[in-house]
Write a structure and sequence with these properties.
Length: about 160
């Protein structure tokens, strides 16, 4: 025995064979919804249409989900003020748009000797961007690059 529900059907308890015949007569499918209920609940629906609607809902949710964009800014260990300010202005714009910013100092050749200088540059960069974003990861040396990550502050 199962409880049959559905649109244009009054809720009733009947045998599985009768429920299948009823669904067949309506050219729809009998789908078990709640197997743990007493008696189990089955619904008469167009299953293909149901699957299509579920897929459509998933697509809508995926479209509404925010996509995280990471913008990279590259410095040299001896970047002068004009270049620094130019790149800082770009970073501010990126953070205001809602993108994450990954800034890095690229050391080539013997410039790796100036890693303290690179770290100071990145810390200065982070402090200048303090009102636009928060530091996600402090300066860290990875091979020939020293990287810092900054994520945008939430808008109120």
């Amino acid at each position: 025995m199962v409880r049959v529900v559905g649109e244009e059907i009054e809720t009733q308890v009947m045998s599985i064979q009768d429920a299948l015949r009823l669904a067949d007569k309506m050219e729809l499918d009998l789908v078990e919804i709640s197997p743990n209920a007493d008696p189990p609940v089955c619904k008469i629906i167009d299953y293909q249409k149901y699957l299509y609607q579920q897929k459509k809902k998933q697509k809508e949710l995926k479209a509404k989900a925010t996509k995280i964009v990471v913008k990279e800014i590259r410095f040299g260990p001896n970047t002068d003020d004009h270049d620094y300010n130019f790149k800082l202005k770009h970073a501010v714009r990126f953070l205001e748009e809602g993108s994450k910013v990954r800034a890095y100092v690229f050391f080539k050749g013997r410039s790796i000797l100036f890693k303290e200088q690179g770290e100071l540059l990145l810390l200065r960069f982070a402090s200048d961007l303090e009102e636009y974003g928060k530091v996600e990861q402090l300066p860290r040396l990875e091979g020939k690059r020293m990287i810092i990550s900054i994520s945008p502050k939430k808008k109120k």
